[in-house]
Amino acid sequence: MPLKYKFCLIFLFSLTLLFSQPKKYKIHTVAFYNFENLYDTVNDEFTNDDEWTPNGAQRWTTEKYQQKLKNLAKVISEIGMPENSNAPTLLGGAEIENRGVLEDLIKEPKLLPLDLGIIHFDSPDKRGIDVALLYQKKYFRPTSYSNIPLIIYKKEISPKEQEVLDDEIEVKKENKNRVFTRDQLLVSGFLEDEEIHIIVNHWPSRSGGEKATTAFREAAGKLNRRIIDSLQQINPRAKVLTMGDFNDGPFNKSIKAGLGARGVKTEVPEFGVFNPFEELSNKGMGTIAFRDSWNIFDQIIMTESLINADFSTFNFWKAGIFNKPYLIQSSGQYKGYPLRNSSSEAGFSDHFPVYIYLIKEFK
Length: 363
What we know:
The chain has 363 residues and is an alpha+beta fold. Helices cover 20% and strands 28% of the residues.
């Protein structure tokens, strides 16, 4: 058998631990990764990227940029192992400067054989960072995609909170009350022959304080819910995955109330959404650390239509956090934290990637 087929994303495997007798299944990995400041070295006059240039504060040289690409490519190529021997079919990404850095990324030797497609829009974010979806063309065929803006205004929060704006948010001169933040990317298409919808998110950060910025993320959660509702109005059994860096954990109001996510399958109502990362949070796991406290800001949440026990179509199997040892600081003040960029070298990211498996019985 040719090597390329041995590592084909769709392959047959046995889940003897999950089922009473071995059955054959197809598997796809779906993942999300905050790339943390994936900037090129060129100064863009329309974005706040000055520090990510050779003469900027980060001394961001071509050598560092190329090393960053290699690091990210290594991670992406391994997410989902060992259950799946190949890279994700669908990968949401955040903190991306432009399409060009994605074009460079997918040309890395570890990713080039995957023949990845890119769906990306420029966002109004002050730092010029966007979200995007990468996908393996041989398994996923997009049929439509759009960037949906998050429309929020300072007047929606208290006067005191109005004074605190996210450092990644710009209040445009033409509308001083409008808060401009990253769009939500909606992609619809076919995973093999099954329709699926993906929303890629990077909600407003906590810069300035969690409490002072929570209203922005609650608004993001409500927008997410409206997008899902619109898809379910067209098809009540629509399969929808919403993924991203939500800058809130599974138990925050934006996730629990705005989006309406439940962490226990049996408690998810019809048309509701299930968050498998709530269970991982309860176990003390995390994707990002701050002051020695871990949280799961990076999550993949799904509609109830994806958590059926019937695997005659693609459905959710299990979720995980990709936190291999090489992604972790091994010494120093931040020992145990994600191995991020430093002034001396290009790291990986200050976030760990997350993933889920979708499986389908092979007949």
